[in-house]
């Protein structure tokens, strides 16, 4: 691969880290990518199609008199992982005024990571990798997870995140991943997580998942890694670049860490579908559906109940993602405990 990529002719480089994309909608578009980063022309094509949503917003405003502000896309910034998606490029961040666009959020709501430091060194772990791999494969892919949840725990998780899940404490008769929960996992959540949850009043949109099985039940969703670039990995610290930060995190060279990367799985898909359904139901008569199939929701008073349904489902999915990463980390702990 050449050291410097020839950029798409439609892009204008402004410095070593940023490019801009002039466009007919006159929306400021910035793409973060150095000269060596390839940028797909197909992603630029897709982004220009997304910007046609400005015409959709104009049509919606004309059909909705009395709006406080003119709905518009105010700015677009594309992150270094920018590439073609399914309607909206991956890595695209839209800042809107007077409207929200569920499809710009997508399905993978609250995709994120959780990392845990261990006291195990990589030299100590290496001789046991084959055995560990078999145990992890059983846990993650061969039905070994066994995460039993009651309806109360499920609803608590979706409404409040980890505090809701752990409100009743760790079940005394729990098995599977629950048995790896330590007392300090249930305290000082705010001090150890960027977000413990996004409280909302309801989780009624996911009633089927909440009540599935009745009593304490098991399913194939909670504790799943998901697809795409999601993972659950054993890693180790190969080098220290910031000694103070490493010390604060309990990290040292050669130390094994557990890292999980996942999102809201099928609940995120359902939340996104809820947003699109609500946008479609609120669509004004006489306004044609856009060719790019991107359906904004105006921030008008009449649409507030429909927006609230979507935003509640969005929070429910985001809370689930936090709980799912919690259990993924507990699952990674299990082989370690057995090996001691």
From TrEMBL:
Alphabetical list of InterPro entries matching this protein: RtcB, RtcB-like_sf
Source domain of life: Bacteria
Keywords: GTP-binding, Ligase, Manganese, Metal-binding, Nucleotide-binding, RNA repair
EC number per UniProt: 6.5.1.8
Coiled-coil stretches noted in the UniProt entry, renumbered to this chain: none
One Pfam family this sequence matches: RtcB
Claim: Glycoprotein is one of the keywords in the record: no
Reactions listed under catalytic activity: a 3'-end 3'-phospho-ribonucleotide-RNA + a 5'-end dephospho-ribonucleoside-RNA + GTP = a ribonucleotidyl-ribonucleotide-RNA + GMP + diphosphate
Cofactor: Mn(2+)
Protein name, per record: 3'-phosphate/5'-hydroxy nucleic acid ligase
